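your task:
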Amino acid sequence: MTVAGLLAYALAEIFALPQGYWAVFSAMFITQASVGGSVSATTDIVIGTICGAIVGAIVAYYVPHQTLSLGVGLLVALVPLTLLAALRPNYRIAPWTAAIVLLSPGAQQLGAVGSATYRILEIALGSFVGLIVSLVLLPARAYGLVIAAAARTLDHLADLLDDWLAVLCGSGDRARITQLQDDIRAEMARLEIAAGEAHEERRTYLTREFDPGPLVRTVFHLRNDLVMVGRAAAEPLPETIVARLREPLRQVSNATQVFLRACGDALRGRKNPPAFDAVEQALANFVAAIEALRREGVTREWPAEEVGRLFALRFVLEQLQQNLKDFRNRVAECSRATIGA
């Protein structure tokens, strides 16, 4: 950002732009955490600036420069541009640009067309300087951000599963569960943003990496599975049930945690995914324990609500098993993409 701002300032001075600070502002704004983010920001700010400058210039050309007339002109310019910003938030700079063209002292000195032209040149100069600096100086690819966010999310999901199953057995830290849920929401937001930037890199042929969409969707599926586990585990099971299921649930928790963390490590290292046998065996043992309880008729003595929660948990864990298999495939795709590159 420092290099982009200084370079934009130097170029603005060389070209004697009347309000070169807009180039500096644009260059600093364009410099994002990844190349994909910089490309997306460049597109948005340039298109938004052109739209706002054109509308502002047209209105300023036909509206006299008197206080009341400028107020009417501002209204005429901002109505369509604020509607554009509402429908396409990426172009929210458009109404700002129109207001600058209409109201700034420099705009009144240069005239409507001159002010709009210089505004486009200044913003475009700063935007492309910021983009070039992002591409050349310490370029950070969005795919690294996708992988890092996905791996951190897996770690949080592993912890959350362990805590929810602990609550089901009569222990667990609910305050920690709340904090983990907040952390997961934050990481999912970062993951979605990084995936959008990675898509921008692919769209502009800046990378040949794998499509991050399936990976992100599968992480969301795993998060949704943990939400359903939380609903089934909201309250501890009766002690008579816990006594029979504590060990199978412990096996499920341990095997799934190890698998999720190993998948995160495989993503970070762009390696092959871990084996899935331990998770399958643990889930099979849990299902077998429930079936044994049913065959023995033990569940007939339990309240219908508790029996319903138990079988809902079985269904959710079986769904989690399928999504874990899908995620293993996504990790394998990531590894193959690296080998192919």
Remarks:
- The chain has 13 helices and no strands.
- Residues 304-340 form the longest helix (37 residues).
